Amino acid sequence: MTIVVFWVLAPLAAASGFMVFRFGSMARVTIALLVSFLAAGGLLIVLGLAYLGVVVILMMVMEMIIMAVFMIAYMMNPAGLISMSMDHNKPRARAISVASFLLLAAGIFAAPWPRRAGGPPASPAFQLGKELMTTQMLTMVTLGFVLFATMVAAVVLATSRGRYDRFGDDLKRRPASDPVRGGVGR
Amino acid sequence: MSLQLFLLLAAGLFAVGLYGALSQQSIVMIMMGLELMLNGVIVAAAAFWHYVAPAAGDGQVIVVVAVVAMAAEMAAGFAAATAIFRARDVGMADMAADLKQ
What ipTM score was computed for the predicted complex, to two decimals? Predict the structure, then answer.
């Protein structure tokens, strides 16, 4: 069963990942990337990490929906109706990618991997939670700060006109400088 | 089923993502390449957990770190794309090449 699922999901993940850079239509690209992530999430479940697998699947479904919105907003050719090339330096990129794959594959087959030590716990999700709340607490706290910093940075970057643009650096400018003045008596 | 097969898949995903990140012009497509690379990391970490040290939770923690890295990359990438699109009306990395100076 595991073998069958692996041989269905693994080629699917790799092939749809590859098709991301082959399709012309943005909708197809997004779906292809989503399929790749869903297959990877399925493989996590096969490996016994049901909780993390479901987390990856749920997160990627949401992420691809957001991605589709951004695609339509920012891409020159969202529907892919006009055939166009959107890449540069293709041969060298392909060479680097193939070389890195061969290097990794050589390492995978050459390295003396250690034998499996111990068996999986009754509940991998419990193991993860316990790990994050005890020995890996520092990792967890760091991840929390990283996410918080990302949120602040994303808002700062994406804001077009904040209060400092309107009220000046000391927030004392009145009335606010707006391109179009609002309110009563404009 | 073996560790090597899973790692080979992870290497493949990583290489495809690397190709995309290097060759694509659109900022959103570059981000897709980065996501695929992190996808490979997730598969590799899960395989390591299962085949090397399932009794310790470190492999799972690496998966969590990769997922968080993905979320952070996505949010920061879209914010940067929004900022540059707003400032210059471009969505391509080549058109913003002067930013590196």
Answer: 0.87
